[in-house]
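Before surveying the methods themselves, let us examine one representative protein, pairing a chain with its fold in token form.
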Amino acid sequence: MASQTKGKRILVVDDDRLIVSLLEAGLQEAGGEYAIATAFSAQEALAKIQQERFALVMTDYQMPDMNGVELMQQIRNLLPETRIVLMSAHPPDLMEEMIGEIHADGYLEKPISLTKLWALVEEMINGQ
């Protein structure tokens, strides 16, 4: 990935620690150009968002304390310019209507392909 991405902050939010670890490793493998932060709940993510800005937030849809849509709505109120990608095991056709209604910037279907992850992150952060 291009060096212009250096310092771009990404927040990965999922209650499954293994998924968070895999996404963090996958993003670092993409070139290590991004500053990756992690949160294991929506509340933890909101606390981090209030402390620092992120270019991209990648959040799981299904979490125990607040779902990804509710988290996304709160992020939009705090930092409307932040790009948000929703992740779910639900197929895209089932999520498509919801994604349009909530104005998510992108969607990743679990299990997440590294190739799709890299392409989506590049598009979200660099507009390519």
Remarks:
- The first strand starts at residue 9 and ends at 13.
